[in-house]
Write a structure and sequence with these properties.
The protein is of the alpha+beta class. It has one domain. Helices cover 50% and strands 20% of the residues. Strand 1 and strand 2 form a beta hairpin. Helix 1 packs antiparallel against helix 2. The relative contact order is 0.24.
Length: 94
């Protein structure tokens, strides 16, 4: 039980870090999946193959769109796992 003058205990801080870590993991995975689940590095432009209607020659146009790459997923997962690990070690009794 927390008393007002002592502040949060290790147990409540540990739970908060677990929740924050899970939130990092879920959010980074959801955003990565929503933007296209690209397994390479992030892209700011996407190639779109077009065909000229008169000459039937294929050409490439670029659309300005952000696709989150694997590095953002890795950073979010690392931050989430670091928070969970910190919560685990703070919650242990000595």
């Amino acid at each position: 039980m927390d008393s007002p003058e002592k502040g949060p205990t290790n147990k409540t801080l540990s739970k908060a870090l677990f929740v924050l870590g899970a939130l990092f993991l879920v959010t980074s995975a959801a955003i990565w999946l929503k933007t296209g689940a690209h397994t390479g590095f992030s892209k700011n432009r996407v190639e779109i193959q077009m065909v000229d209607p008169i000459t039937q020659i294929e050409y490439v146009e670029y659309e300005e769109r952000f696709i989150m790459g694997i590095e953002y997923l890795a950073a979010g997962s690392f931050a989430g796992l670091a928070c969970i690990a910190a919560g685990f070690f703070l919650g242990r009794r000595r």
